[in-house]
């Protein structure tokens, strides 16, 4: 708030970035901050924020539904305050307007190249938002970058922000998952360093973490949890047939057979629709959301390359999300592209593994990796 007031009073463009891992409360902070800003803007004629024109942006249709629902039950917040970035840019240009304060949730999902399919004809959404605003406050996590058209790193973000007065803050405490630091570190080693470290009994303290040899048994357990506490769903990485053609495409693992999530035309987020207990969610329907229990399928692209040292690798030929890896003019080195694509697949697993508040159940397609994890899990649960 101090940063915002200073920028407005000095009529100086500024950017404030909040960094934090999945589940560290970035969206909660941003949501409360926006409510405070709009209260001052619409009711306090003694405030420097009075009558400022402010917006909350998120490039995720499912998350946007949540914010609009919150606005519908709040007398200060309006549904029109919450927009997709492209809508915001195009509407301001159409009416020759500018914004005062803009908050951006999930800024790692902003487009960093033109995307004519989504009516974005510039080169970088964040850059265009800053041009049209006085103060920009955003939350960012480079380990949640999932698509080439939204390719970001901390270095790329810093290079874009260098011309502007800017400040940063890093959130470190995990609020979503009730798991301890030992299990969170195990997840980070698995997804960010592609290394399976030893499971220990401490990782199961106050958190329901399980490894399954049978995906169907895992499904039954998640259904039971959903009946008990609600908001429990099956999620999966890529590697199974998936095409946006309106038809159902199934994930099959032994006796397990369930369709991918369908496009959600309702105003209710996917995870809150009761019928989606019979679907498999993807990163596109669960990113940014809390689940009480998450059953995760690690699909065919991720496999155990080196059993002795627990090293994982990614087989890009088994990746089935064709929209994720569209070419970019600024990435031409084949080795670099391969490295980025593999990192994005592991990022998607990182996103999935940090959804469950009370528990995470895991099934792995690759037999070698599944055996290794089961051996470790049985070792600590049979004591």
TrEMBL record:
<feature type="domain" description="Schlafen group 3-like DNA/RNA helicase">
    <location>
        <begin position="15"/>
        <end position="366"/>
    </location>
</feature>
<dbReference type="InterPro" id="IPR027417">
    <property type="entry name" value="P-loop_NTPase"/>
</dbReference>
<dbReference type="InterPro" id="IPR018647">
    <property type="entry name" value="SLFN_3-like_DNA/RNA_helicase"/>
</dbReference>
<protein>
    <recommendedName>
        <fullName>Schlafen group 3-like DNA/RNA helicase domain-containing protein</fullName>
    </recommendedName>
</protein>
<dbReference type="Pfam" id="PF09848">
    <property type="entry name" value="SLFN-g3_helicase"/>
</dbReference>
């Amino acid at each position: 708030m101090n940063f915002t007031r200073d920028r407005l009073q000095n009529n100086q463009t500024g950017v404030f970035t909040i960094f934090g891992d999945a589940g560290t409360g970035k969206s909660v902070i941003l949501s409360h901050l926006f409510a405070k800003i709009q209260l001052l803007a619409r009711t306090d004629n003694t405030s420097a924020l009075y009558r400022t024109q402010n917006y909350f942006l998120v490039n995720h249709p499912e998350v946007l539904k949540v914010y609009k629902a919150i606005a519908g039950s709040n007398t200060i917040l309006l549904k029109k305050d919450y927009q997709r970035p492209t809508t915001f840019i195009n509407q301001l240009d159409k009416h020759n307007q500018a914004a005062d304060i803009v908050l951006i949730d999930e800024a790692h999902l902003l487009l960093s190249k033109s995307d004519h399919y989504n009516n974005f004809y510039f080169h970088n959404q964040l850059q265009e938002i800053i041009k049209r605003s006085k103060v920009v406050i955003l939350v960012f996590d480079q380990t949640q970058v999932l698509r080439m058209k939204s390719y970001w790193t901390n270095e790329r973000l810093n290079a874009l922000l260098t011309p502007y007065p800017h400040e940063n803050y890093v959130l470190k405490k995990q609020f979503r998952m009730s798991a301890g630091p030992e299990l969170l570190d195990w997840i980070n080693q698995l997804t960010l360093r592609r290394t399976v470290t030893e499971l220990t009994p401490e990782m199961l303290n106050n958190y329901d973490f399980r490894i399954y040899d049978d995906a169907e048994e895992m499904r039954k357990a998640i259904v039971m949890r959903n009946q008990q506490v609600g908001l429990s769903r099956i999620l999966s990485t890529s590697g199974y047939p998936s095409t946006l053609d309106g038809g159902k495409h199934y994930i099959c693992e032994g006796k397990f057979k369930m369709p991918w999530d369908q496009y959600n035309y309702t105003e209710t987020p996917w995870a809150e629709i009761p019928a989606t207990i019979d679907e498999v969610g993807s990163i596109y329907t669960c990113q940014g959301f809390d689940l009480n229990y998450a059953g995760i399928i690690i699909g065919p692209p991720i496999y155990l390359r080196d059993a002795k040292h627990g090293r994982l690798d990614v087989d890009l030929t088994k990746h089935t999300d064709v929209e994720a890896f569209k070419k970019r003019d600024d990435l031409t080195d084949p080795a670099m592209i391969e490295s980025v694509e593999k990192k994005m697949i592991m990022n998607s697993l990182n996103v999935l593994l940090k959804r469950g508040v009370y528990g995470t159940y895991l099934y792995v397609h690759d037999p070698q990796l599944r055996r290794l994890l089961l051996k470790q899990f049985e070792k600590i649960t049979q004591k």
